[in-house]
């Protein structure tokens, strides 16, 4: 593809993101015929279709999917150059886009602020999403680095552990089991249990734990998100399995209590994730070094 231009890649990226020539034109501030012309040139140079229409729906072909991965990597490098030059001109140190799973958001802002104290002039964007969405953003070069648990084995990302992630059983302070010592798991069998929504990493962790103990609990309600679950627990609707990061404020205010269940808390790892196909450099590399050195202290929480 010797005639490939950055403008063609920018147009293709916008088309792939929106799956619409009209929407891509609006995003880029050009006309729809200009988008159509640049896409025809790109497909002619590639020697094969990159998008296909099925009725009113547009989708990428196999060739389009391959090109998109390379296009976003190239555009990311270009943005890095632009950022570096803009930083030299303005005195700003650079811009970092961090993606985190929702539970990591309880300490991620503090992590960014601690990093900014070391690197004055740095600016940030923080995107919070479900685990699968964060991994997709990382794969598609829409974020620089991410914080989550260990990725699936097939994910094309590097995971570096920097802190522990405790999970516990929580209840309202007036719950009858609060204050009891070494509560057996079998005693939780008939307790009203509040579950996270299907697909939640916290729920998957709990279900794996219950399976390992051959225990079935009384699921009375399923709720989406840590904040909703906390409100239900504080209202006395039942007990729940939660990340300790999510209840730090409520524990300090004595609005939620941790039950002393045998073999609890259960631990996962917090990891800094980055793509294997590109080496961290500049601000991303500096942030990685900071997280590896200071992330454990910043992400520490009480039980």
Main structural class: alpha/beta
Q: Which geometry do the CA atoms define?
A: elongated
Task: Please tally the β strands and state the result.
Answer: 11
Helix fraction bin: 40-55%
What radius of gyration results from the CA coordinates? Answer: 24 Å
Secondary structure layout:
Layout: H1 6-18, H2 21-28, H3 32-46, E1 51-54, E2 57-60, H4 62-90, E3 94-101, H5 108-118, E4 122-129, H6 131-139, E5 145-148, E6 157-171, E7 192-196, H7 201-212, E8 218-223, H8 226-234, E9 239-243, H9 248-252, E10 257-258, E11 266-275, H10 282-298
Parallel strand pairs: 3-4, 3-5, 7-8, 7-9
Antiparallel strand pairs: 1-2, 5-11, 6-9, 6-10, 6-11
Please summarize what this structure is.
By secondary structure, the protein is of the alpha/beta class. It has ten helices and eleven strands. It has helices spanning 6-18, 21-28, 32-46, 62-90, 108-118, 131-139, 201-212, 226-234, 248-252, 282-298; strands at residues 51-54, 57-60, 94-101, 122-129, 145-148, 157-171, 192-196, 218-223, 239-243, 257-258, 266-275.
Could you characterize what this model shows?
The chain is α/β, with parallel strands linked by helices and 303 residues long. The protein has two domains: 6-70, Arc Repressor Mutant, subunit A; 92-303, D-Maltodextrin-Binding Protein, domain 2 (3-Layer(aba) Sandwich), CATH 3.40.190.290. Helix content is 42%, strand content 23%. The protein is built from ten helices and eleven strands. The protein has helices spanning 6-18, 21-28, 32-46, 62-90, 108-118, 131-139, 201-212, 226-234, 248-252, 282-298; strands at residues 51-54, 57-60, 94-101, 122-129, 145-148, 157-171, 192-196, 218-223, 239-243, 257-258, 266-275. Strands 3, 4, 5, 6, 7, 8, 9, 10 and 11 form a nine-stranded mixed β-sheet that branches. The chain has a two-stranded antiparallel ribbon with strand order 1-2. α1 (6-18) packs across α3 (32-46). The chain is elongated.
């Amino acid at each position: 593809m010797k005639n490939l231009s950055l403008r063609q890649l920018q147009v293709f990226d916008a088309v792939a993101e929106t799956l619409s020539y009209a929407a891509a034109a609006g995003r880029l501030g050009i006309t729809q015929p200009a988008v159509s012309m640049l896409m025809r040139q790109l497909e002619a140079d590639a020697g094969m279709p990159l998008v296909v229409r099925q009725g009113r729906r547009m989708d990428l072909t196999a060739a389009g999917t391959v090109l998109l991965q390379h296009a976003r990597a190239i555009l990311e490098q270009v943005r890095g150059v632009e950022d570096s030059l803009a930083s030299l001109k303005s005195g700003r140190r650079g811009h970092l886009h961090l993606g985190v799973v929702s539970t990591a958001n309880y300490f991620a802002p503090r992590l960014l602020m601690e990093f900014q104290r070391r690197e004055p002039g740095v600016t940030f964007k923080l995107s919070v999403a479900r685990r699968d969405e964060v991994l997709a953003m990382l794969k598609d070069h829409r974020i620089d680095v991410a914080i989550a648990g260990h990725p699936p084995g097939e994910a094309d990302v590097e995971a570096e552990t920097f802190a522990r992630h405790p999970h516990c059983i929580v209840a309202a302070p007036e719950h009858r089991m609060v204050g009891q010592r070494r509560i057996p798991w079998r005693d939780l069998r008939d307790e009203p249990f509040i579950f996270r929504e299907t697909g939640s990493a916290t729920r998957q962790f709990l279900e794996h734990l219950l399976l390992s103990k051959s225990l079935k609990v009384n699921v009375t309600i399923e709720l989406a998100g840590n904040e909703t679950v906390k409100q239900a627990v504080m209202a006395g609707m039942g007990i729940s399995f939660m990340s300790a990061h999510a209840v730090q404020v409520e524990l300090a205010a004595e609005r939620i209590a941790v039950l002393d269940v045998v073999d609890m808390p259960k631990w996962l790892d917090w990891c800094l994730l980055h793509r294997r196909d590109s080496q961290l450099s500049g601000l991303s590399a500096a942030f990685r070094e900071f997280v590896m050195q200071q992330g454990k202290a910043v992400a520490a929480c009480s039980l």
